[in-house]
Design goal:
The complex is a heterodimer of chains A (144) and B (645).
Chain A lengths: L2 H30 L3 E2 L1 H6 L8 E7 L5 E2 L5 E7 L4 E7 L11 E8 L5 E6 L10 H14 L1
Parallel strand pairs in A: 1-2, 5-7
Antiparallel strand pairs in A: 2-4, 2-6, 3-4, 4-5, 6-7
Chain B lengths: L1 H28 L3 H4 L2 H24 L6 H6 L6 H7 L4 H22 L5 H25 L23 H29 L5 H32 L10 H26 L3 H24 L12 H25 L14 H31 L8 H21 L10 H25 L5 H17 L13 H26 L1 E7 L4 E4 L2 E12 L3 E12 L6 E3 L2 E5 L4 E5 L1 E5 L2 E10 L5 E9 L3 H37 L1
Antiparallel strand pairs in B: 1-10, 2-3, 3-4, 4-5, 4-6, 6-7, 8-9, 9-10
Classes of the chains: A alpha+beta (144), B alpha+beta (645).
Chain lengths: 144, 645
């Protein structure tokens, strides 16, 4: 192969790689783009059963209950517009409190409830996902 | 006084960088060799001043001088000394100072040590480096002065986030920064070579040690960060696909590609323009990483320093440097001569494939990390998580691993398919054997873990192939380095796949005296006792674990720690390391009926993830040593010839 041809081939290959990365990402995005849902988003999406996602919102005051096995926690996540009942089997993080923000990772069960396998560990007390802050703000203004 | 001295040294270091840039431009432009020659000493003085400034900052932290705003905000007098020192860079301003300090030291090192590069290219390189440094000096001095005073001084400081009070994390950021800065040096080399149109094997050999060093530190930093997340956050996971993690992964991917392409340039004089391009991309990735972490623009479980002004400052620097380099690249790439050609099936061809696959992974990670920001600008709120990255990057990574086995077994320039196939028989056989074993004994572990285990065994066996039939003592160090680094990748992959395939989890509400099973272990909960540390108190769970009913018992002590400054609770997992995995215990809350929540994981071969990372870094270090030693040897022979010839 001549040097010039080889160079052209390499440039084309590099372009193909970049385009390939883009296509690969897009195809995965189509399935998984919305990874973060508020209770309202979840309702709007028709409660997609079995899809892995994060559910974010506030822990509704008075909703936290521990089941008899001692390790399953039941609580309600709200964005002040809609609510979702969540079941989580595991140790809740230190910052998990009623009335404060929470991000639960898991999936919607057949009965419409949310089964979480992870409650997000947070680095510090200042952490709050901006998406959530935005959502809360939006719904609050709507109510007023 | 110390703070003022530090600030003065910082200003002087900035002035030196300005001088360095001016002299390099004059030296090159006006062809004034007398001016150009002075660039080296200026770079050395600048490096020393930067170091002095940084040491002053460490000193005010060690003395807990609360009249310095940064100390008051990030330190506390009751903190252990290690964390007072680490506190100096455990914040925005300090870490930026560390950045310019390391950049200055690197410049001084190039000025003192670099002998292989053509003088004009070296001057251009130092000029480019000064230009990078100037932006960061401006950032520090104008937008985030680390030595600012506070009046009146508070009686005591805010303290450091307890999660960061961990030896692993104290050294994690500096390690990553060394990697970032190493890539900025590679970038300066690329700009220097473009300016003087001197892209060739000599330039590649001069740049390679810097790329290698940067890559070693990035590998160590990522490995340490992953292990820290694993044991400190108490959720048993080792990778989150969090934007902050991606911020360090992206430069690593680019540096890995660059490392391989610079080798092609150094040994075969191929891939000239591509190597320059990768150097620019690698540094862009470390700048984007800095931007993502420092600007707080992204949703992240560990984004910190949320400050839009700083974000836009870094964004401006990013645009300036990357844009400038891309422009220079576009203008000059035509004058970079094409290198030597090669057949498709050759070592070069395999390295091109490696580069393409790494680029695809990099592209996927970049899109996944930045897409939410772009979407947000368009008014859509979304976030992208592990399912996306695993789905899009996982298969490509597995393909990359297969290239990794074949590549070192292919000859340079050209090879034949049938002879390659005969060399691949053993690794493919090993992979097939694993496949058979898994089908018989471990069905239903998921597609990716399954493929991961098969590929890991094949790659592990195949990575040792370059040593077959060689005299091991006469094998060059850099060959050893390559073999060990590739083996490390296989070891790491095996650990990841094993952890996701075979982890056993037990979750119970236990009463003292109760015994629970987790995998092959029996764990007895004997009670709770208080514990006390230098700046925390804790509730400590007392566990006795044993393998099977009659194994040797060993204690485990998971804790819930309470810190007073700032008031925080953290969970300290107890981790027992065994040869075939780790037992991981977390203590949860107490129930009203007197039970305690216990979460116990048995994670077979999980340690291999980080052992693999360490092996990769070790391989890099051996390679670096081998290259530096070989270069020194060549130099000695040349000097001898010059003397007697």
């Amino acid at each position: 192969m001549k040097a010039k041809h080889q160079r052209l081939t390499l440039v084309l290959l590099a372009l193909a790689a970049v385009v390939g990365a883009g296509l690969l990402a897009l195809s995965a995005l189509k399935d998984q783009a919305a990874f973060f849902y508020s209770p309202s988003d979840l309702a709007a999406a028709g409660n997609p059963v079995g899809q892995r996602m994060r559910l974010g919102g506030m822990v509704a005051v008075g909703s936290v209950a521990k089941l008899a096995d001692g390790v399953t926690t039941r609580f309600v996540v709200t964005d002040n517009a809609r609510t979702v009942a969540v079941v989580y089997k595991g140790i809740v993080p230190d910052l998990f409190r009623e009335g404060s923000g929470v991000v639960a990772e898991g999936q919607v069960a057949a009965n419409g409830g949310f089964v979480a396998d992870t409650i997000l560990a947070k680095h510090d007390e200042r952490y709050m996902p901006p998406q959530m802050a935005g959502k809360m703000h939006k719904t609050e203004t709507l109510e007023k | 006084m110390i703070a003022e001295a530090g600030l003065a040294a910082l200003w002087l270091a900035a002035a030196m960088a300005l001088l360095q840039l001016a002299m390099a431009s004059i030296g090159l432009r006006a062809r004034r060799a007398d001016v150009a020659v002075a660039v080296r000493p200026v770079a050395v003085v600048g490096g020393v001043l930067g170091l002095v400034s940084f040491l002053c900052l460490v000193a005010v932290f060690m003395r807990s001088d609360m009249s310095v705003l940064l100390v008051a905000e990030n330190s506390h007098s009751a903190k252990p000394m290690l964390y007072k020192i680490a506190g100096a860079w455990g914040n925005h301003e300090g870490s930026m100072l560390l950045w310019v300090m390391v950049l200055g030291i690197a410049g001084a090192a190039i000025a003192l040590l670099e002998k292989r590069l053509e003088e004009r290219t070296l001057v251009a390189t130092l000029g480019a480096q000064a230009a990078i440094a100037l932006g960061f000096f401006a950032f520090l001095l104008l937008a985030s002065n680390p030595f600012a005073r506070v009046d009146p001084a508070p009686a005591d400081g805010n303290g450091l986030n307890p999660l960061l009070q961990d030896p692993g994390l104290a050294f994690h950021p500096p390690t990553l920064y060394l990697g970032y800065v190493g890539l900025s040096v590679a970038f300066s080399f690329a700009v220097g070579a473009l300016v003087t149109r001197d892209v060739g094997p000599a330039f590649a050999r001069a740049m390679r040690p810097w790329v290698l060093a940067a890559w070693i530190f990035l590998t160590l930093g990522i490995t340490a960060g992953s292990y820290w997340a694993y044991y400190e956050l108490g959720w048993g996971g080792w990778w989150f696909w969090d934007p902050v993690e991606n911020a360090s992964l992206m430069p690593w991917l680019a540096a890995t590609a660059l490392l391989h392409s610079v080798t092609v340039l150094a040994t075969r004089d191929g891939l000239r323009a591509w190597t320059i391009m990768l150097a620019v991309v690698a540094f862009s990735m470390s700048m984007i990483g800095t931007f993502l972490v420092r600007s707080g623009i992204l949703t992240s479980v560990h984004a910190f320093a949320v400050d839009p002004t700083r974000g836009s400052f870094i964004l401006a620097l990013l645009a300036l440097y990357i844009g400038g380099a891309m422009l220079l690249f576009a203008l000059r790439v035509g004058t970079v001569k094409a290198g030597t050609t090669f057949e498709l099936l050759s070592r070069e061809g395999a390295l091109v494939l490696n580069n393409l696959l790494l680029t695809v992974i990099l592209g996927v990670v970049l899109i996944g990390t930045l897409y939410p920001i772009v979407a947000q600008a368009g008014g859509v709120q979304l976030s992208i998580g592990p399912p996306f990255f695993n789905k899009a990057a996982g298969p490509v990574a597995l393909a990359l691993m297969m290239v990794l086995v074949a590549g070192p077994l292919i000859r340079w320039r050209r090879d034949a398919w049938d002879s390659l196939a005969s060399r691949l028989i053993v690794p493919i056989g090993a992979a097939m054997l694993t496949l058979g074993l898994l089908v018989v004994f471990a069905r239903g572990i998921g597609v990716l873990p399954f493929a991961g285990l098969v590929v890991a065994v094949g790659v592990g066996v195949g990575s040792l192939a370059p040593l077959w039939g060689r005299n091991l003592r006469r094998t060059p160090l850099f060959t050893w380095g390559m073999v060990i680094a590739h083996l490390g990748a296989a070891v790491s992959l095996f650990g990841m796949a094993s952890d996701s395939a075979f982890t056993k989890e037990t979750l119970v509400a236990a009463r003292p005296g109760q015994t629970v099973r987790s995998g092959p272990f029996e764990v007895t909960f004997t009670g709770i006792s208080p514990a006390i540390g230098p700046n925390w108190s804790a509730l400590e769970g007392r566990l006795v674990a044993r393998r099977g009913a009659d194994g040797t018992p060993f204690p485990m002590r998971p804790q819930q720690r309470f810190f007073a400054n700032p008031p925080t609770t953290t969970n300290e997992a107890a981790i027992a390391t065994r040869i075939d995995g780790q037992l991981y215990a977390v203590l949860g809350a107490q129930g009203q009926d007197g039970t305690w929540q216990l979460r116990i994981w048995w994670k077979p071969f999980v340690t291999l993830i980080w052992l693999g990372g360490a092996l990769i870094a070790l391989g890099g270090a051996l390679s670096l040593l081998g290259r530096v030693w070989r270069a020194g040897q060549v130099e000695r022979v040349r000097a001898k010839e010059a003397r007697y010839g």
